[in-house]
Amino acid sequence: MSYKSKTKFAIKPRLGQHFLFDEITLNKIVDAAEARRSDVILEIGPGTGSLTQKLAIRCRKVIAVELDRALCFSLQKKMVPFQNVKILRSDILKFSVFNFKYGDDYKVVGNIPYYITGKIIRKFTANKKRPKMMVLTVQKEVAERVCSRPGKMNILAVSVQIFGAPEIAAYVDREKFDPPPKVDSAILRIRMFKKSILSRELGWFDRRGKPKISPAEMDEAEENFFHLLKIGFSSPRKQIHNNLKNGFILSAGEADDWLKAAGIKKTARAQELGVEDWIELVKSSKFKIKS
Predict the structure, then answer these.
(1) Whole-number Å distance between alpha carbons of 277 and 116
(2) Is residue 13 reached through a cis peptide bond, with omega within 30 degrees of 0 on the bond before it?
């Protein structure tokens, strides 16, 4: 079943399509991305190209990744005047960042399908070729979750904040889209760290930036960190010592000693812990945190 939009495009609900045409909002996205003439932009879901055009005017290069065949065909014709725009028909979740020739010197911008927001954020934050910045129009509640602070933390917030600093650049009313989604949105900006907090705190690099451990060891350490997060948030309502005890098959005393060594209260719950607390758990662990 398709929805006939005001723009004569057949909307495909399965692709989470909601086209943004509001000029003020589009300009807010470009401004949030701090678009400059030297920038290379990887745009997710260009749709009808309204944002693509604005980015092309401001930036050196725009690589727009769109899954919809009909939209790609339309975009190819619409972007003919812009020699700095390249349209790729692809699923962004299958897009290979490792083959992206711009290394980590790029920014990710997009009005993305809400149902794959978490997967997209995880793909680019945890990737070794992380962008300098991500500016995404996402569901308001998701943006607020990503920006949570200790007391209201969640696994997505920790997973993002280990790699970058998120903030909400602006809120967007649902009526700014065609067709309007069922929820309001927000422009989420994530400024990526050159080195993740995990790598800095665990001393993976020397003062000159030269790695002290192998890439394989870094990958394993990150996998183990996220395994710890998954266990820590496995039962958010429970005190974290119960989650650690059950998840790592520990005695009550071992779990409590682990928390004490990390400087975390026995009665704490996962939502109360900040990024630094999780890293302290890694540092103070006497157990192998295997995924």
Answers:
(1) 28
(2) no
Write phi, then psi, for 157 (nearest 5 degrees). Answer: -60, -45
Nearest to 49 by CA among 80, 24, 28: 80
Contacts of 81 (CB under 8 A, 6+ apart): none
Q: How many H-runs (helices) and E-runs (strands) does the chain carry? A: 11, 11
* d(C-alpha 136, C-alpha 152), whole Å: 22
Quick one: average pLDDT of 254-278?
Answer: 95
The more confident residue out of 16 and 41 is: 41
CA dist 166 → 193, 249, 284 (Å): 11, 34, 27
DSSP E strand stretches across the chain: 3-4, 10-11, 19-20, 40-44, 61-66, 85-89, 107-111, 133-139, 164-172, 177-178, 185-192
How is the chain split into domains, by residue range?
A: 3-194, 198-284
Least Cα distance to 279 among 210, 232, 213, 239 occurs for: 232
The whole-angstrom separation of Cα 165 and Cα 191 is 5
Tens of pLDDT, residue by residue over 94-124, are 988 766 777 678 999 999 888 889 999 999 9
What is the distance between the alpha carbons of residues 212 and 203, in angstroms, rounded to a whole number? Answer: 8
Number of residues in the chain: 291
pLDDT interval class at 289 (50, 70, 90): low
What CATH number should be reported for the domain whose range is 3-194? Answer: 3.40.50.150
The CA distance from 158 to 145, in Å, is: 10
Q: DSSP string spanning 17-78?
A: --EE--HHHHHHHHHHTT--TT-EEEEE--TTSHHHHHHHHHSSEEEEEE--HHHHHHHHHH
Task: Domain 198-284: state its class.
Answer: mainly alpha
DSSP string computed for 85-101: EEEEES-GGG--GGG-T
Residue 33 and residue 133 in contact, taking contact as beta carbons nearer than 8 Å: yes
